[in-house]
Amino acid sequence: MRPVDAPFALTIKQNNTNRLHCLNTLAEQQGLQRGMSYSDARAFCPDLLSHPFDHRSLERFQHILSRWATRYCPWVGLEGQDGLVLDITGAAHLFGGESEMLADMRQRLEHAGLSVRIGIADTRGAAWALARYKEGIAPPGDMISALRSLPAASLRLNSQTDQTLQRLGMRTVGELSTAARAPLNRRFGTELLMRLDQAMGQQPEQISPLKTLPHYGVRMTLPEPIGLVEDVMAGTARLLERLCQSLKLQEMGARVLRLSLRRVDQESQHVELRLARPLRDAPRILPLFERGVDAIDAGYGIDQMRLEAVQIEHLPAQQISQRHGQDKAGLEDLISRLGARIGLENIQRFLPADSHIPERSFIISPVAYSEPGGHWASLRPRPLLIFPPEPIASCGTYPPDHFRWRRMALSTGRVTGPERIAPEWWFSDDNWRSGVRDYWKVDTQQGRRLWLFYTPQNPGWFVQGEFT
Amino acid sequence: MMTGSLSTVYPLKPDRMHEVCGPAAPSFAAVFAAQADAPFLWIREAWRTEQLLPAGFIDFFSPNNLLIASAKNLTEVLAVAEESLRSSVVPLVIMELSQPLNLTTGRRLQLAAKAGKSTALAIIPEGMGSNTAETRWHCRPLFDPADSTLQCWKLIKNKSGTLGVWNVRWSSSSRRINVVSEAGI
User: Fold this and answer.
1) How many Cβ atoms sit within 10 Å of the Cβ of residue A401?
2) Residue of chain A minimizing CA distance to B63
3) Would the CB atoms of B27 and A347 count as touching at under 8 Å?
4) How far apart are CA B178 and CA B164, in angstroms?
5) What is the pTM of this model?
6) Which pLDDT belongs to residue A453?
7) Do B26 and A361 lie within an 8 Å CB cutoff?
8) Are A113 and A3 in contact (CB under 8 A)?
9) What is the mean pLDDT of chain A?
């Protein structure tokens, strides 16, 4: 969404009614307010623009903002749904003092199109009160003078307590702080006094900063646009070095990497690299980029490069083995290169599966996402090739002496069997609807060795495989 | 036809491209792959309805060594084959072709095999061989009342030697091919 120059509101659905959840100053000037029903608002202001409120994108924005706020101090936490709380202890002087920091913050946020209310105080509670009821900076060590004239609700009280306090005539923080504590405690419980003490600094209150997730992206802006493949590869090498450093610190390996190249004309081009194994070894990854970078159209030149590990996996430090290390790495790199051409999922290996049904006696799984393993065994000879069953004209329970298959007249020489395989009733497989199968290995006089089966429950003969 | 000893032409000359056709071509490939004892690549086109059944290969090699690349079309098959031959990581690349190779592509594969020191084996439709192949074989199974591994291997092209015909049997206990005495049919 873009900023609009008209009355605008976000609506939220509550009890089957659309209500205004949030609105801009132009809308407020039209007499609209938060909590009003949307149809009323439209009546007041017919050209009101609106959009449904999206809780998740607000949350995402709050997180982005909190990451931005770490430019002021490292200790940034979330405050409710619409606020941030910063512990600027020991950080204000870096900006020339509290008021300068506040001005800087305000200027940057307003430049980004946000309206903000900021309060600075010794305690979290007092800062909360100031931000909401009287913007400014509280004098150090004297919270009471800053908060004295503010309403009692500025102590983060619930609405019921606030209402009762108003009925009792205790409207401001000043009145509350001079009142006797014991009756207050008896009347309202410990909550009210705790909030008061927190605001005054008599009780500690922590700020829990958000967990900073490590970010695996590096970028480089170039003073002059580049266009040669070698230059782009050299840039990629530098980015990769940095990225692999941070991957190594966290013991992670990249599975999918994306190199974004921004051209001078603002066009962006991407090279995506999917790896056969999680890697954080720059010299191994770099040659894999060659093919993708080759295909890039540099246009008038590239002036910004960004490399991001889109998908990462745990890659704990491993003992380097003398024997197999080199060989395996070569195979993995080959698979990555082939995967870039035909798709990583098209390079497959067989894994054994526990089933008597020939089609299900193995699993095909991508090499990149599986380890070879398992024990292969078969009690009876199996054909090299299988194909969808091809019917042949015959009857009887014993393999026919003569039959035609794929336009060849074949006569039976030697038969081995039968081997009865029953369908697995716990899978519904359309091919096995015809019931149990009696498999025969038939060596024909003509040479071909075929795998035939007979379905006694639905009489018919089929060829399913060839031994050769 | 003159028939020399099979050992002069088989095992196939390394670092070259070879071709095999005929109904028993897959088993020729399996027999040859049995000596690889390392992961090797089998490239197929995805549209083929026949499927390799790993249980059938147990007699020849461990299916754990078999890597399948399923490519969209012939161009991809050739690209994958060339890349993997050149990388010299896999000792053997088996590819199933559906069309004859022209001189350029055949030569490219031959050079890639030479550069990467790996062997290429193309399973081709009958009569669609390319001129660049080092050897071309025609394999068909033979009926034998006692045993079911008898095959007739016919060398129908050889760049550096004579042609020949051999009747061979696969011995699964020693994992090698045995020549049956009656040859030169």
Assistant:
1) 13
2) A350
3) no
4) 16
5) 0.69
6) 94
7) no
8) yes
9) 89
Residue from A291, A336, A350 to probe the interface with B (highest B Cβ count within 10 Å): A350
List residues bridging with A120 in a β-sheet: A137
Position A106, amino acid:
R
| pLDDT per residue of chain B (185 residues) written in tens, 0 to 9 | 446 788 888 889 999 999 999 999 999 999 999 988 889 999 999 999 999 999 999 989 999 999 999 999 999 999 999 999 998 899 999 999 999 999 999 999 999 999 999 999 999 999 888 999 999 999 999 998 888 889 999 999 999 888 889 999 988 888 888 888 664 44
What distance in Å separates the CA atoms of residue A391 and residue B9, rounded to the nearest whole number?
40
Matching residue, tokens 């894994």: A351
* E strand segments, B54-101: 66-71, 92-96
Chain A residues whose beta carbon lies within 8 Å of the beta carbon of residue B58: 376-378, 382
In this complex, the residue of A346, A374, A443 whose CB is nearest that of residue B143 is: A443
**Residue A391 β-bridge partners:** A462
Q: pLDDT of A130-155, one tens digit each?
A: 998 888 888 888 888 888 888 988 88
CA of B42 vs chain A CAs: smallest distance (Å): 10
Domain B6-184 has CATH 3.40.50.300: yes
Distance from CA of A359 to the nearest CA of B (A): 8
**3-class secondary-structure state, position B60:** coil
CATH code of A122-211, in short, is 1.10.150.20
Mapping DSSP to helix (H, G, I), strand (E, B) and coil, where does residue A186 land? helix
C-alpha torsion sign, points A282, A284, A289, A294: positive
Q: What is the CATH number of domain A217-317+327-341?
A: 3.30.1490.100
Contacts of B145 in chain A (CB under 8 A): 413-414
Instruction: Please indicate if any CB of chain A lies within 8 Å of the CB of B66.
Output: yes
**Which chain A residues are Cβ-neighbours of B87 within 8 angstroms?**
330, 333-334, 337
Domain A8-53 grouped into CATH 3.90.650.10 = no
- What are the residue ranges spanned by the domains of chain A? 8-53, 56-116, 122-211, 217-317+327-341, 347-468
B52 and A352 within 8 Å at the Cβ level: the answer is: no
A90-117 mean pLDDT: 90
Ramachandran category for residue A302: left, alpha or beta (phi over 0 → left; psi -120 to 50 → alpha)? beta
CB A400 within 8 A of CB A379: no
